[in-house]
Structures are given as C-alpha cells and as structure tokens.
Amino acid sequence: MMKKKRIAVLGSTGSIGINTLRVIAAHPERFEVAALTAFNSVKEIEGQIRKFAPKYVAIAQPHIASLRKSCPAVKFFDVTRDLAELVVAKDIDVVVIAMTGAVALDPFLAAVRAGKIVAPANKEALVMAGDILMAEAQKYGATVIPVDSEQSAIFQCLQGRDIKDVQQIHLTASGGALRKVPRVRHDQLSVKQILAHPRWKMGAKITVDSATLMNKGFEVIEAQRLFGVPVDKIKVIIHPEAIVHSMVEFIDGSILAQLGVTDMRLPIQYALTHPNRLSTGLPCLDFSKLGQLTFEKPDTRTFPSLRLAYDVLRCGGSAPAVLNAADEIAVEAFLQGRIRFTGIYAIVAKVLAAHVREPHRSSARIVDIKQADAWSRRRAVEEIERIR
Ligand code: MG
After folding, report:
1. Ion ligand 1, residue ranges at CB < 5 A
2. How far apart are CA 2 and CA 213, in angstroms?
3. What is the C-alpha separation between 171 and 248, in angstroms, rounded?
C-alpha cells in the first residue's frame, strides 16, 4: 500500500482551502489531513475537524478554549503566532498555503526550511520575498509546487525541461471585469460591478486586483521568483476564455501550453500528486464546443499595474513588498468607498516613488522586507488621506 501524503491546509475555510479538502476527500487512499488552520471561522473549521480528524489545528486564540472542549483529540495552536511552529511538524509532508495576506510569509519560510513540499496559492509571500523563499527552498531541499492556475501551468510545461532553453513565458490573463470598459468610465463603476468577475469566483481583494490587472502584475513577479527566468522573458497576454492557463516557449520556437477547465481543483490536485497524476472527475474540455480561443495585447496605458510590476522586479530588494502592501491598503480603501477606482494606481505609484528614498529599498533580508511592508502600509494610508 502507498504511504498517504499528510497535508497541512493553511486557510482551510477559504475558497482554495475548501477546494483542497474536496480533492483530499476524493482520494482518501492517497491523502490525509494533518493540520487545518483558519482565523475566525470557528463553525466552518469545527465541521472540517469532524470530517477530516486532523492532528493539529490553528485558530485565533479566543476560540481555542471552546473548540478544545468539542475536539479534545486535537492539538491547538494560535494562528496569529504559531503557524511557523506548526508547519515544521514531522508528520506533515505537504503544506498547502491557501490563506491570503502577508501573514503567510513566516509559515512559508519555516516550511521551506524544514524541507517540506510547499504548495502556495498565496500570492503575497512570493511577491514580497519570493527570491528569498526560493533560495531557501533550494538550500534546504524543499519543493515548491504552485497552486495558482497560471503558475501551475508554467510549472507543468517546464517539467523535464531545462530552464536555459526557455525563450519566453506567456502568462495568460482573463483581462478582468473592465477589459471592455473604456477608461473614462472606470471611476463611475460601483464596487459591486467590479466584483462581478467573468471567469473565476474569488474573494473581493483578488477580484479588484484582477480588474486593475495588479493580480497579473503580481503573477509576473511570482513567475520570475518561482522559475528564475529573466524579467524580460515573461510576457502577459490577455486570453478572455481562460482555457489556456499559460504557455512556455522554447528557444527553438516550440511552445507548450497547459489547457483545462477553469476549476481550481485541477492545479490543487496536481500540486498534491506531482509528479504523478490522478483522475479529478472533472468534465473534459470539448474542443468541438469551444469555438475560438482569442488572445490580445494588454493595454498598459489603461492598466498601469503591469508596468509597476515590471518596474519593481527590476528594482528588486524590498520594492515588490512595497507594491504588495500599498496595493492592499489602496484596494481596501476602494472597497470601503474611500477612493475611486483609478485612485488605486495613484496611491500605489506614489508610495513606490517615495520608496526609492528609503534606506531599506535595496536589501533583501526578511527583516527589511517586513520593515518595508509596514512602511508602505503607513505611507499608503497617508497618501489616501491626502487625495480624499
Ligand atoms: Mg491566477
């Protein structure tokens, strides 16, 4: 009998976490849940504990006492403090990082230093400190298998290939909610209209990031970090049907693409089974019904986020962390109706412009990254007050 993979799901009550548990539940002979974590979703995680019987659970401190009564067999951790301690447990093989936010940085770092298989769906940690995380993964023999659909596609296309043979990476983007909306109208749209994403069902923050194309900018940074290709070899191409999840072009002009239905269970499961594959039970693509697949160049004048992402990659150091933090604050202000849609770009660009004068800008140590993150958040708040 095959040894089961013991999986920690960080952020198990969010959409990626729930889909990860569906994949695990579909293959009980292959996988078992070793740990679950959530912040405040007590009811949801209690149901998950009953169903999957994890050994470890992390949740916000105030909920631990009551959960311990109903789940006496579980060892509990404080989610805001102890995640880095939890993920290094000997009886965890794979760490799925499904939680959002910069808080994923510490457990990600701890997991790679413990030589785990790390399956990140979280963007922030890779954007902020992807260069450090990947260097540590290499040093400690950890395997990083991305869960994000585009990065998973690139990862799959690169299997068994030499990175030196890569001519270009074509990162596909659905184009977000505003692809066909003229720029002059962007500030007239309501938060609700922007949250109606055409392809993927996601949280509010990432849906706004899709509309600004900042999400794709973050993915350019992630791809550079994950695969170690030069910045200029990563190209974004708008592909509204979201069937081609990304492509890799080699020096001989040959291009490999990964295609599939738009269901996150596919890349999640691949991260859990790599280098093998298992049936997902998902419907297959029917090419005779697909009709056309279309591609177009992104409009970086209307959507300046992509330019900002390339800029911070060239700048390096803590600049990507500054971009990530400023965007988080700006998007939050937009969702609260405190700034207009295009105000997001304005805030982020202003914070980045101020960052070049900061002493921690060129350093790439975790402590400086965190300092830059905090600085950027403060600065973004100030800029928001200024433009209101
Ligand atoms: Mg994506």
Report:
1. 148, 150
2. 43
3. 8
Gap from CA of 42 to ligand 1 centroid (Å): 28
315 is written with which tokens?
Answer: 């700048």
Which run of H or of E encompasses 327?
helix 319-335
Q: How far is the CA of 186 from the centre of ligand 1 (A)?
A: 22
The CA distance from 103 to 42, in Å, is 19
Distance 90 CA to ligand 1 centre (A): 31
- The pLDDT score that the predictor gives to residue 199 is 59
Residue 2 CA to ligand 1 centre (angstroms) = 32
Separation of 307 CA from ligand 1 center, angstroms? 18
* Cα 226 to ligand 1 centre (Å): 14
pLDDT value at residue 357: 80
Domains and CATH numbers, the chain: 5-147 (3.40.50.720), 149-263+285-309 (no CATH), 316-388 (1.10.1740.10)
C-alpha angle 21-176-13 in degrees, rounded to nearest 5: 20
Instruction: Report how far ligand 1's centroid is from the alpha carbon of 149 (Å).
Output: 5
If the chain, 388 residues long, is cut into consecutive pieces of 10 residues, what is the mean pLDDT of each piece?
92 96 97 97 97 98 96 97 98 97 96 98 96 97 97 98 97 91 91 75 85 97 97 97 97 98 95 96 91 94 95 94 97 95 96 85 83 96 92
For 195, the 3-state DSSP assignment is: coil
CA nearest neighbour of 322 among 380, 384, 373: 373
Return the number of other C-beta atoms located less than 10 Å from residue 154's C-beta.
27
Average pLDDT, rounded, for the chain: 94
Q: How far is the CA of 355 from the centre of ligand 1 (A)?
A: 27
Interval between CA 63 and ligand 1 midpoint (Å): 32
Note if the pTM is more than 0.90. Answer: yes
Give how far Cα 178 sits from Cα of 174, 257, 263, 305, Å: 10, 26, 22, 14
Q: Give the helix/strand (H/E) hosting 77.
A: strand 75-78
Query: Phi and psi (nearest 5°) for 101?
Result: 100, 170
